[in-house]
């Protein structure tokens, strides 16, 4: 559960957007100030969707890239439960909406677009400080928020790119398989003491105990990576949309997309 908690601060807060609304106060009224606020807040929303998209890129050890049967089953689950996850066009559409054409064309070329968006935010804040639009204190606070976002992004990327030790993941499955193979021998001998009919009763008990251990192994296996786009993963799209709605309402916008609804009983 600790690995899940590390991811929540980055997709569960919109502190930068709230703080951006207060920059300059009433000293710089007008459309230019509103345009600056909108640009910075829109780029923050674009960063959220970009990070989500990058975390959904399949790693070589994930289930979608395993043997044919597991890969087909995983793909079927992503299509059934997923919302723009297998063939993800959500992020591309959002980036085009929140970045101007020139910036979008430049950012989309980078391997780590999310990092470059944070860097661009930082550069713009430096320019605003140089123009005297934001003071030293607010500039330092905003840069600190960007640093926090970058650190949380790094934590998410480490969860995604550095799985639990493979010897643990593979050997635990081997041990469970050995246990399930040997379990009937112990069950039959114990239940046989009840009589001949006891031997037959051992069969459902053996199946039940084997199923429990097998499910424990599968739960652990699928919990290693909460960014695969499966039904038991973190609902990143819903979190991104919630933050987008909050920030755009702060800008006074009325044409806001609806919140993400569950698909087949799963919130993505």
Structural class: mainly alpha
Global outline: elongated
Number of helices: 11
Count of discrete domains = 2
Helix content: 55-70%
Radius of gyration: 25 Å
Overview of the structural elements:
The chain has two domains: 2-162 and 226-250, no CATH class; 164-224. Helices cover 69% and strands 0% of the residues. The protein has 268 residues and is an all-alpha fold. The longest helix has 28 residues, at 196-223. It is elongated. It contains eleven helices and no strands.
Brief account:
The protein has helices at residues 2-11, 15-20, 31-55, 68-81, 90-98, 101-107, 113-130, 136-161, 166-192, 196-223, 236-250. The protein is mainly α and 268 residues long.
Q: Can you tag this structure with a few keywords?
A:
disordered N terminus, 268 residues, mainly alpha, 2 domains
Summarize the SSE layout with pairings.
Elements: H1 2-11, H2 15-20, H3 31-55, H4 68-81, H5 90-98, H6 101-107, H7 113-130, H8 136-161, H9 166-192, H10 196-223, H11 236-250
Helix pairs in contact: 1-8, 3-5, 3-7, 3-11, 7-8, 9-10
């Amino acid at each position: 559960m600790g690995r899940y908690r590390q991811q929540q601060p980055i997709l569960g807060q919109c502190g930068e957007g709230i703080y951006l609304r207060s920059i300059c106060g009433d000293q710089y009224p007008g459309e230019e100030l509103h345009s600056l606020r909108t640009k910075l807040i829109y780029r923050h929303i674009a960063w959220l969707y970009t990070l989500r998209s990058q975390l959904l890129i399949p790693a070589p050890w994930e289930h979608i890239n395993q043997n044919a049967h597991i890969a087909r089953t995983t793909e079927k689950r992503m299509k059934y439960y997923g919302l723009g996850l297998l063939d993800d066009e959500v992020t591309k559409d959002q980036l085009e909406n929140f970045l101007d054409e020139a910036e979008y064309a430049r950012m989309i070329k980078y391997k780590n677009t999310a990092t470059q968006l944070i860097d661009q935010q930082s550069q713009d804040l430096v320019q605003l400080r140089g123009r005297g639009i934001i003071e030293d204190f607010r500039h330092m606070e905003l840069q600190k928020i960007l640093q926090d976002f970058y650190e949380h992004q790094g934590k998410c990327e480490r969860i995604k790119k550095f799985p639990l030790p493979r010897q643990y993941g593979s050997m635990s499955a081997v041990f469970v398989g050995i246990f399930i193979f040997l379990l009937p021998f112990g069950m039959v001998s114990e239940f046989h003491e009840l009589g001949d009919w006891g031997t037959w009763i051992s069969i459902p008990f053996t199946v039940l105990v084997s199923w429990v251990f097998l499910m424990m192994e599968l739960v652990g296996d699928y919990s290693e990576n909460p960014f695969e786009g499966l039904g038991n993963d973190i609902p990143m799209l819903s979190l991104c949309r919630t933050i987008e709605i909050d920030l755009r309402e702060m800008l006074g916008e009325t044409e806001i997309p609806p919140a993400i609804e569950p698909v087949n009983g799963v919130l993505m």
